[in-house]
Amino acid sequence: MLSAETAFATVAYFNALRITIGHNVPLAVAALGEIISVINRMQDFLLLEEMSGLDEREGKDNEAFISGENEETTEPTLRDISLSVKPGELLAVVGSVGSGKSSLLMSILNEISLVSGRVVVRGRVSYAPQESWAFIASVRQNI
Predict the structure, then answer these.
(1) Burial class (CB in 10 A: 0-12, 13-18, 19+), 68
(2) Is 77 helix (H, G, I), strand (E, B) or coil?
(3) Which residues lie closer than 8 Å to 93 by C-beta, 6 or more apart?
(4) Residue 21 — very low, low, confident or very high, per pLDDT cuts 50/70/90?
(5) CB 66 within 8 A of CB 104
(6) Which residue, 129, 111, 18, 14, is CA-closest to 70?
(7) Out of 22, 88, 89, 100, which residue is the most buried by the measure of CB atoms under 10 Å away?
(8) Torsional sign, CA 21, 24, 26, 29
(9) Is the pTM of this model over 0.70?
(10) What is the CA radius of gyration of the chain?
(11) Maximum distance among all alpha carbons in the chain?
(12) 109, 125 in Cβ contact below 8 A?
């Protein structure tokens, strides 16, 4: 015959096991998928060739100049570009999809290689992409 103490302990044990398996294991599996994705991206980044730094020159008028093309394409991505931004100026880069906005910004940051032309940056450059970071989870977990 089953005593009340044994029945209570058994039910409590199975309830804890049910919560662990029913709630935490699916969360762990979802997190594992994200972790594998992050590890792959980090590995790709860490295996990239070391890039030379920007040719930084301090001066009174911290301007940027850029012209060039991407070495992987047969047709130039950026052509006949001359850009001069004075200190304190706000610059908006706008255009249709595929017009070269990202290529322009990435070339200023020395993130893409140039076949010809040059990038001259006097002073420091900062870039903050507007990509959303949302995890595959609830709104509460993303906050």
Answers:
(1) buried
(2) coil
(3) 101, 104, 105
(4) confident
(5) yes
(6) 111
(7) 100
(8) negative
(9) no
(10) 27
(11) 91
(12) yes
For residue 23, which of 11, 34, 15 has the smallest C-alpha distance? 15
Q: Tokens 């994200």 — which residue?
A: 34
β-bridge partners, 68: none
- On whether the CB atoms of residues 87 and 61 are closer than 8 A, the answer is yes
Structure tokens at 20: 């662990």
- The residue behind tokens 């792959």 is 40
In single-letter form, the type of residue at position 123 comes to G
**CA triplet 51, 55, 60: central angle to 5 degrees?**
150
Instruction: Give the pair of three-digit tokens for residue 25.
Output: 């294991």
Contact partners, residue 127, CB within 8 Å, separation at least 6: 105, 108, 109
Going by C-beta distance under 8 Å and a sequence separation of 6 or more, which residues neighbour residue 120? 55, 57, 63, 64, 65, 66
pLDDT by residue (tens digit) across 63-83?
Answer: 555 555 555 556 667 777 888
